[in-house]
User: What shape does this take?
Amino acid sequence: MTLMFRVADFARPDFAAYVREHPDQWRGVHGLWDLIEEARANGELRLPREDILFFATPHPHEVAVNSTRVTRVLGSNVWDLTRAEYTARHQLAEIDRFLRTRVPGFEESYVVQSGTHTGVRESRRVLGDYRLTGHDILAARTFPDVVAHGAYPVDIHNPRGSGTVLKRVPRGSFYDIPLRCLLPRDTDRLLVAGRCISGTHVAHSSYRVMPIAMATGHAAGVCAALTVRHGRGPRGLPYRLVQRELLRQGARLRTGPE
Assistant: This one.
């Protein structure tokens, strides 16, 4: 789990100068490994992850920080969620202090906003007619009943401590999500979308992100509307009808030959 927050009064030129002088300490949107180790050695930072990760926002003097990590908690347990809030906000304060005291460009910065609650990456998932796997994703697999695509990497945050697994889809490729992943097994007249579609823990670490959740939501909505129009359940609806309507509505969709 992670609590996101935004930091204002960030001096981007000063941070850019630090990165130029220490090119091995920053890769795109994450890094600061040596500074983190120094802070850990001095007892200033107790964070179960190995790097600091932040992104630009529409405001030039602001960044969104994605660096808290709460482990060994369940998103379906209210007591765990309460503990996660407590832990994540303590981590936020530590990271804020670390940035201001050790990272060039953050000397005058301050936290301007945090998430309303800690974000849960994964909890329950539906078992569907097909279960998407990590192999499907890393092989950029295609399916005849495709209704959405994804290209985000396999991105597993260690649920027990530090470390992150990152494996990318082959460059220039993307994988298919079949309509069967949206159909809960042994259940009729029900569709699911977003993070809870049918897939393994590894696959979920890729398709859980917002653009892919939006695409599966679009597909579920179209399929639901067509089942009403044609008077049959989702399994009785030819997937080609769903694909044609998605394409008519402007979805980006690779489909096989008729």
